[in-house]
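[recover] target loaded
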């Protein structure tokens, strides 16, 4: 996991690069990944623009649980565990998800 801060005139832009564990990994390793990302987000000021890039290995479907977050904008019909974890993390941090 790495990040870079680009200083701006009115606010800074923070780009966070992270790669989540694969679907085959245990739930504990996925939990520790999102805990680590959460600890990094705690140190960022709220008013900075935050962009997360990298491979989250998340497959977000068109299920009802995703509609409040991504509406019907997903290209996938189904979802996976990493997708559910990504949406839960994003909603807890007030992040915007776009496919």
């Amino acid at each position: 996991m790495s990040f870079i801060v680009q200083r701006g005139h009115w606010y800074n832009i923070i780009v966070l690069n992270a790669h989540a564990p694969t679907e085959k990994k245990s739930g504990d390793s996925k939990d520790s990944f999102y805990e680590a990302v959460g600890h990094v987000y705690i140190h960022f000021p709220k008013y900075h623009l935050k962009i997360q890039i990298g491979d989250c290995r998340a497959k977000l479907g068109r299920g009802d649980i995703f509609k409040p977050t991504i509406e019907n904008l997903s290209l996938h019909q189904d979802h996976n565990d990493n997708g559910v974890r990504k949406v839960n993390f994003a909603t807890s941090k007030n992040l915007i998800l776009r496919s």
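[recover] notes: The helical segments are 27-42, 67-70, 81-92.
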